[in-house]
Each structure stands twice: as C-alpha cells, then as structure tokens.
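Chapter review: from sequence to fold.
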Amino acid sequence: MWVSAIGLEVSFNWNHGLGLFLATIICYLVFKGKYKVSFLGNKPLKSMLVAGSYLLYYSLFGLSNKLGINEHLWAFIFCASMLTYNIFEETAWRGFLHDKLGDSPAWLKGIVTGILWGFWHVLIFKNFNQFGGLHYFVLLTIIVSIIMAYAVKRTNAILVAASIHGLLILRNNYVTVICMVFWTILIITWERDKLLNRKKTS
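The token string follows.
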C-alpha cells in the first residue's frame, strides 16, 4: 500500500477492512432479499453532509504528523482514508447484519452487532490494555453500536455509520463534540421534510 511507501504507520490494517467488505458482498449475493440499508441511505444529501462535516471539521483543526505534510491537508488525507476503511467495515456490521436482524428494536440490534464487532477486534488488536481489558472494550462497542443502530434506523445509511465510527479512532475533543452535536440534531430531524409535506397535504 502507498502508506508503506511513505513510511506511514497507521493503527489499522487495510486487509481487515477489505476482507470484511468482500465477505459481506458475498453474503449480499448469497442471501438475496430486500435490504433497507444502503451506502447513502434514504437521504443521500444529508448522508454526504454527515461525512462532509467530519472531513471538514478535522481539516480545519488539522492533525500533526511527522511527515512534514501541512496539518490541515494531512487531516483531510488521513480522515478520508479512515472513512474509506470504515465504509468497508460498516458494510458488514451496520449494513448486512443490521438488515438481517429485521424489525428487531434498535437497542437489540446494537447489542448483537456490538458483541460481534467487539470480539472481531481480537483479530486486529494485540491487546486491550488501553481499554482496561477485552470485557470493557466489548462494553464500549455495544454502547457505540446501539448509538449507530439508532442512527442507521433513521438514515439507512452505511456512510453515516462509517462517519460515526471515525470519531472513535481520531483524537480531537473539539471535533468530537462539534460533530456529535451537529449529527445528533441532523439525525433527530432526519425525516422533518416528510413531516412538513404531510402537514401541507393534510
């Protein structure tokens, strides 16, 4: 990969994301059916706004690096790469698996996907010491997965889940707070235009 060519050490391996993505595509082909969740979901422009704001805010604040690259440009490159990786991964968890759990409540979908998502990281992380152990890490993935399940229930968008996923890895409290507040408002009012149209026609 190009990251090796420039001597960049990243906290994730592209093989894991690509492997999960390809396995999910095979599952989509084998277990054919009607799926609600898609890449851009039921509001493509709003989904792109979520991802765009993630890239924009980090680019504005910047990320330091040892490569001599402008911190704002580097933030965009790194976050765009991270978002791409997260799309590969979220196609499985908040895409295929979320859909296959049918009409189950969002909290239940979050618990199921959160447990599987958490233990899947055993294949990636050397240890879970920074989280206080595997059990605490799985608890974290369950909590975050419930949040994602609710977001996907509203948006049906893998891109939204991938953007939320990005905040778990990068470290900037200001960006995290700004994104979470903006996204919460956006997701809560996701279907507002439909409600307005119903009122006009009634």
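Two observations follow directly from the output. DSSP finds nine helices and no strands in the chain. Residues 1-7 have pLDDT under 50 and may be disordered.
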